[in-house]
Design brief:
The protein is α/β, with parallel strands linked by helices. Helix content is 38%, strand content 15%. Bound molecules: adenosine-5'-triphosphate (ATP).
């Protein structure tokens, strides 16, 4: 049977249980063989100065899923210059894995309204199934906008691929703010990630 692989890109600054729980839920609902976490070197909508060094974000992702056979971590986006476009990443995985593998790209529902502005989005939806994890406070985007950006058939598929996942209201922004304020981040991130943040003294200076 064809391998089914989920690709999950993000800033992961830091990776937290919201990411991991929603990714596992999507993997179970879609019967995926594995999920690849892909820290972005430079997400198109973020400034480099806003982000923690990629090597820290990569290491935290590795620590978060150590010993879990569902997950693996890829540094694919860290070797490319410029913005980390999903289209380029998916093309790279497609070339590496071959045409038989079924690929899924995970996003959180808060990223869905921005999708029409993504780089080469009309082509992207033809090469990968974009699967959306419903997240606290999410609203279904206006299908009219999606129809214009990717065509009505792809827009219908995209909305069908919005899957309910446990709604875990954790955000990386909140975690960074808690560290800066000296508050505990226990139960928000895996223990290995919390220790790494402490020993590397991440997020302490605004
Ligand atoms: P930040 O607060 O810095 O913007 P974030 O917590 O939203 O970060 P990102 O690394 O930017 O995390 O997110 C990567 C992907 O994970 C995005 O598609 C985002 O929607 C999704 N995501 C983030 N937090 C959650 C959560 N609690 N549940 C489900 N999906 C999430």
């Amino acid at each position: 049977m064809a391998q089914r692989i989920g690709l999950y890109g993000g800033s992961f600054d830091p990776i937290h249980f919201g990411h991991l729980i929603s990714a596992r839920s999507l993997a179970e609902q879609l019967s995926l063989n594995r999920v690849v976490l892909i820290p972005a070197m430079l997400p198109p909508h973020k400034q480099k100065s806003e982000l923690t060094d990629a090597r820290h974000r990569l290491e935290m992702a590795r620590l978060a899923v150590q010993g879990d056979p569902l997950f693996e971590v890829s540094d694919a986006e860290l070797h490319r210059a410029g913005p980390s476009y999903t289209f380029d990443t998916v093309t790279q995985f497609r070339q590496q894995l071959g045409p038989q593998v079924e690929l899924f790209w995970f996003i959180g529902a808060d990223s869905l309204p921005e999708l029409p502005s993504w780089y080469r989005v009309a082509e992207l939806v033809k090469v990968v199934r974009i699967v959306t994890a419903a997240r606290p406070g999410w609203t279904r985007p206006d299908p009219a906008q999606l129809n214009v950006a990717i065509g009505s058939a792809s827009a219908r598929q995209l909305l069908e691929d919005c899957l309910e996942t446990p709604r875990i209201d954790i955000s990386a922004t909140d975690i960074r703010a808690r560290v800066r304020s000296g508050l505990s981040i226990r139960y928000l991130v895996p223990e290995g990630v919390a220790s790494y943040i402490a020993t590397q003294r991440l997020y302490q200076i605004p």
